[in-house]
Amino acid sequence: MMKKVLLISVILLIIKTGSGQSPLPRFADPVRLDNKINTDAEESMPVLTSDGGTMYFVRTFYNRNNGGKEAGQDIWRSSGSKSAWAEAENNVFNLNNNNNNAVVGVSRDGKRLYLLNQYVWKDKMKAGISVYEPGKTESPVPLDIPGLDPQSDFYGFYMHPDENILLISAKLENSLGEEDLYVSLKINDKWSSPVHLGSTVNTGNFDISPFLSDDTRTLYFATAGRGGLGSADIFMSTRLDDTWKKWAPPVNLGNKINSRGFDAYYFMQGNNIWFSSNRSSEMSDIYFTRIMSKEELEAMLPKPLTIYFKLNSYMISGESKPVMEEVVKILEQNQELKVIITGYTCSIGNENQNQKLSEMRAGSAMDFLLAYGIGVDRIEIGAVGESKAGLADQSEEVQKMFRKVEIRFDYLY
Fold it and tell me: Pick from 2, 177, 330, 379: most CB atoms within 10 A?
């Protein structure tokens, strides 16, 4: 008996050091935006103004693009909010030409647009990034990023609204894969050379569509180099210091965001999220979702389950085994859940012995789950002895209901 008590004591004293990773958000079911935004062409790269009232995005292979269906991609713009948007237009400050055009960032005050490529002359463009302020600059002004020399035609950017952090996806001289993620910082009005985000983030495949949280701590990006549900999944990673080279291990955002298709171009504003996916057609569309509230999440949790024991026993009975198997099934089907196991006793007997007995009962439930392959990191245990039973009616009919273990469900993060 003492051996099991010692084991429980050790587990109760486990200190979770963590990896510094931000908690994984819980997302509502995504909604495909209607045909005012999505068409039979490809829509991607949503970028919103800070007030959430204007969305810029890209259409590709669309016959109403500048130059037609086979020309480059155009910037399109719509007004609205969340999942409700007006008919989009591509008459956007005459920024569209026959090449690839895209908005890759908007200043916090909404006055400046950051644009894919540098506008050289008419339809001539050069790899890089430009800034345009309607009414102030006649044409987009190129940004000078030392050492930014993409070695392929595939590259992308995200400018933080504070306009001092530029995320880059490109194949440069020190890249590990087809496209790697970098950062350039604006210091004393000059941009730094791209800093490689390191091998914790970058893979030997392509790592693209970077987005940085408003507080600049959390990176969201799409990759084909980490497995997942489809050809590209969206992951998140938390920055651990100010070198931009140390990151928590990336975490897949799960099956509400990711699908069997190609998922990328995550954009987050408050609790609202827009992203691009081809989960329902060959071409990508733009989807909307949101982070669920605490109340919504709690309402979705499975109901608590209880198993009962004979007097002075901590052995799981045959009657309780189906209940424990149901716990296993729930945990196997919901990898985001954990269990909180609490052992109880009736008030008969010595208080100290009853405390130990309640620990043994919680330990038996834990051992059952471990034997079925449930990870110890998904199990929390506690024991309250006779503390609850001592406050209740002392009749046998009432007291036998305290010879139990309660199993509650909660989210891992």
Answer: 379
CA–CA distance, 284 with 297 (Å, rounded to integer): 29
DSSP letters for 236-272: EEEB-STTS--BPPPEE--TTT--SSBEEEEEEETTE
Mean pLDDT, all residues of the chain: 93
Q: How far is CA 168 from CA 22, 129, 194, 290, in A?
A: 22, 10, 8, 26
Task: Give the tokens for residue 380.
Answer: 């929390």
- At residue 19 the predicted structure's pLDDT band, cuts being 50, 70 and 90, is low
CB 27 within 8 A of CB 246: no
- Per residue in 211-232, pLDDT tens? 999 999 999 999 999 999 999 9
Structure tokens at 315: 């052995």
Distance CA 367, CA 365 (A): 5
What global pTM score does this model have?
0.85
What residues contact residue 140 under an 8 Å CB cut-off, 6+ apart?
A: 95, 115, 118, 119, 130, 131, 132
pLDDT of residue 124: 86
User: Comparing C-alpha atoms, which of 94, 89, 115 is closest to residue 103?
Assistant: 115
Cα 357 → chain centroid: 41
Residues contacting residue 250 through CB under 8 Å, at least 6 positions apart: 200, 201, 221, 223, 226, 235, 236, 237
Contacts of residue 192, defined as CB under 8 A and 6 or more positions apart, other chains included, come to 146, 184, 185, 186
Distances from the Cα of 304 to the Cα of 324, 333, 373, 380, angstroms:
12, 16, 21, 14
Q: CB 123: neighbour CB atoms within 10 A?
A: 13
Instruction: For residue 34, count other CB atoms closer than 10 A to its CB.
Output: 10
User: pLDDT tens, 141-167?
Assistant: 999 999 999 999 999 999 999 999 999
**What pLDDT digit, counting tens, does each position of 178-197 carry?**
999 999 999 999 999 999 99
Phi, psi of 347 (to 5 degrees): -90, 0
Distance CA 107, CA 159 (A): 8
Could you give the CA distance from residue 174 to residue 176 in angstroms, rounded to a whole number?
7
Nearest to 267 by CA among 348, 210, 344: 210
